[in-house]
Backbone:
């Protein structure tokens, strides 16, 4: 039998494969491209391309594709075969360095948020040698960045790579001050925990809202939801187990470090977590994971739901973004460690995160903003839209003491001197028992819990990396200029704690009291996507991104427009789907049932029997149906009027306040009707049937 280590990464043109296949000199060049960011020349690229092609053909590939991540939320690919005609009417298989390095897909059908109007329609894809090529569906996939002809990023990979570089630059400045030796690289690492739902394919097919919108637009609560807490970590049903097994295997072949799988809190909800890797690779791998989750579910007669909130009243799905910084010497910069020097360094990086989150909460909120995630954030099941940090008792106590100028040790009365005090060695697992915080320190990494299940992790990490780069650069400016490093460091740490401690909160972030308390502290609470996006293009944010070379003002503008458009379009599609389902399914069912009851009432009257019950039911159904039609008409006219040439921000606000609100109102009546109309007349499977469809 084959063991996992035999086939792990067998479909990846990994460093090991390259080392084996490439001439030594070329491998050295590729290695420098991967690890030192050096450019590969065309001659070397030709050799790599040829070897990649031979390797791919051996594994059955006939095509290659540049694989990229446009602003659509999914990945894009255009397949070309390797064939090239020969003079004698045959073909040979060819793949050149030029084809490897650069592609020119037509950019005009991808969202550009206005960048296209000002620049050329043409776009190009550029090989990202730091993410390995792989084989899927008999095709060689080449991870690429996607840019407009003028170099403007049109994708999610480019800014992520830029932000990783920015953070590395500043982190290295700090490490140099600490005299860290032999450190040449600092990488942001990410391990995204992916939540998802599995429902039976047949049930899925009978719900147009799940098919078109990825979530249910109505549905009365089932008698049994997650209140029994019996699903979390429960036994995995055989069908799901078979699916998970195949998913793991396919991911392993692609070099994805799938590690943990378990049932989640809601019925039909599950989670998969990989071992962390560099942010860039983690983003690519997470896209692959989501894609495989969908296609494999299909093969197993199920549908995989990656929406943030497929069912009202049932937990939604998030993507916990575990994030840390690691040096090429293997040091995790958020690991408290146990020597004094390391502690001071750890503390500086820690307070840098605190300051970053406190200074740029809007950007973090924006990085998790979407119509889908708005249903989740602040619904007393996911962290609220208020950005705060959980540190845990011990670390908070240490910061308290440091701020007061005392020793980090609670039992000592020495004046603070970070250089010579030793942090108590806190046990890892006491640090994270708070699941309500959007941003929690979990022992040696931060867990950003606000991203939604369908998100690319790129956006959140672009922001994390950039705001951290900014704070570290300010710190480095100050410390580099200081005549004496240690006292300057102590003062900086103490001041940072004092100035930014308002963002620390260890209590229950789901509570109403926190919302009030946060307001008193002056922390923003941007509840919806339009609220959040109104803060994107501020001069301060533009300056931040420009300073670190992550986004230009144009690129931010384009991204903001795309996010607003997505928001409005999503709600529009949902509203149209809902209108259709109500008009053609729910309204007829309600009338049909009334007809039945009316016939019975009439028959009873003819027999001179009392029919008060039927009459009462008819009156009640009649008035519900009247509300149904009223709200239906109202929504229909709002959707109709939600068009025309108004600014994207205004349109999004209209969709939120009128269309989404109108859907809520309509849903209320539909859900009430569902509880009164017999199941055989109700046109759609209910929550109970959907959530317990996979056994
Ligand atoms: P929990 O459910 O308690 O949050 P999991 O084990 O499900 O824990 O997830 C932890 C995630 O954190 C994993 O994906 C893991 O790879 C990731 N992780 C661990 N260490 C780091 C690190 N240094 N940088 C980034 N991610 C990390
Ligand atoms: Mg987690």
Residues:
């Amino acid at each position: 039998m084959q063991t996992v280590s035999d086939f792990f990464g067998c479909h990846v043109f990994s460093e090991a494969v390259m080392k084996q296949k490439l001439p030594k000199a070329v491998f050295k060049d590729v290695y420098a491209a991967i690890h030192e960011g050096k450019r590969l020349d065309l001659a070397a690229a030709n050799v790599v391309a040829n070897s990649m092609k031979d390797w791919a053909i051996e594994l059955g590939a006939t095509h290659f594709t540049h694989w990229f991540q446009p602003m659509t939320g999914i990945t894009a690919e255009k397949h070309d075969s390797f064939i090239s005609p020969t003079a004698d009417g045959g073909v040979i298989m060819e793949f050149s360095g030029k084809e490897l390095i650069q592609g020119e897909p037509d950019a005009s059908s991808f969202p550009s948020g206005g960048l296209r109007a000002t620049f050329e329609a043409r776009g190009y894809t550029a090989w990202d040698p730091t993410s390995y090529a792989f084989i899927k569906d008999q095709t060689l996939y080449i991870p690429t960045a996607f840019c407009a002809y003028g170099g403007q990023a049109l994708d999610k990979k480019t800014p992520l790579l830029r932000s990783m570089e920015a953070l590395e630059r500043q982190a290295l400045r700090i490490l140099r001050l600490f005299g860290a030796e032999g450190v040449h690289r600092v990488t942001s690492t990410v391990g995204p925990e992916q939540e998802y739902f599995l429902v039976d394919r047949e049930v899925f097919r009978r719900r147009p809202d799940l098919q078109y919108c990825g979530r249910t637009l109505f549905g009365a609560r089932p008698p049994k939801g997650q209140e029994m807490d019996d699903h979390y970590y429960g036994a995995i049903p055989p069908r799901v187990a078979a699916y998970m097994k195949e998913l793991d295997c396919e991911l392993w072949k692609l070099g994805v470090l799938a590690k943990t799988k378990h049932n989640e809190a809601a019925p039909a909800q599950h989670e998969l977590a990989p071992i962390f890797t560099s942010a860039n690779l983690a983003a690519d791998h997470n896209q692959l994971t989501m894609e495989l989750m969908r296609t494999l579910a299909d093969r197993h007669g199920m549908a995989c739901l990656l929406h943030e909130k497929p069912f009202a009243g049932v937990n939604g799905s998030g993507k916990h973004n575990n994030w840390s910084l690691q040096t090429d010497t293997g040091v995790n910069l958020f690991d408290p460690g146990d020597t004094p020097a390391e502690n001071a360094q750890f503390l500086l990086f820690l307070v840098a995160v605190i300051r970053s989150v406190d200074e740029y909460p809007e950007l973090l909120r924006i990085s998790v903003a979407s119509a889908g995630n708005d249903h989740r954030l602040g619904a007393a099941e996911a962290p609220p839209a208020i950005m705060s940090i959980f540190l845990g008792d011990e670390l908070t106590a240490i910061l308290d003491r440091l701020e007061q100028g005392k020793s980090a040790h609670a039992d000592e009365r020495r004046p603070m001197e970070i250089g010579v005090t030793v942090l108590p060695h806190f046990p890892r697992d006491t640090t994270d028992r708070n699941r309500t915080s959007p941003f929690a320190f979990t022992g040696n990494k931060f867990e950003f819990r606000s991203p939604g299940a369908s998100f690319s992790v790129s956006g959140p990490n672009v922001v994390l990396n950039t705001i951290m780069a900014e704070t570290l650069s300010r710190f480095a400016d100050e410390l580099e200029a200081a005549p004496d490093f240690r006292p300057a460091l102590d003062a900086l740490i103490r001041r940072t704690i004092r100035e930014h401690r308002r963002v620390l909160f260890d209590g229950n972030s789901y509570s109403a009291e926190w919302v009030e308390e946060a307001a008193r502290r002056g922390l923003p609470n941007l509840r919806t996507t339009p609220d959040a996006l109104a803060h994107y293009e501020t001069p301060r944010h533009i300056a931040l991104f420009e300073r670190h070379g992550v986004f230009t003002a144009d690129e931010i503008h384009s991204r903001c427009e795309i996010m607003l458009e997505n928001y409005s379009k999503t709600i529009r599609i949902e509203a149209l789907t809902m209108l259709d389902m109500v008009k053609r399914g729910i309204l007829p069912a309600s009338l049909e049932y009334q007809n039945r009851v009316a016939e019975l009432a009439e028959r009873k009257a003819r027999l001179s029997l009392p029919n008060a019950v039927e009459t009462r039911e008819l009156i009640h159904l009649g008035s519900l149906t009247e509300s149904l039609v009223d709200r239906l008409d109202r929504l229909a006219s709002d959707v109709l009027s939600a068009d025309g040439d108004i600014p994207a921000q205004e349109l999004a606000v209209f969709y939120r306040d009128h269309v989404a609100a109108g859907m809520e109102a309509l849903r209320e009546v539909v859900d009430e009707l569902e509880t009164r109309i017999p199941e055989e007349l109700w046109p759609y499977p209910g929550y109970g049937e959907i959530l317990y469809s996979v056994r």
Notes: Residues 19 and 27 are 6 Å apart (CA to CA). The pocket of magnesium ion (ligand 2) is lined by residues 193, 320, 447 (CB under 6 Å). The chain has a mean pLDDT of 91.
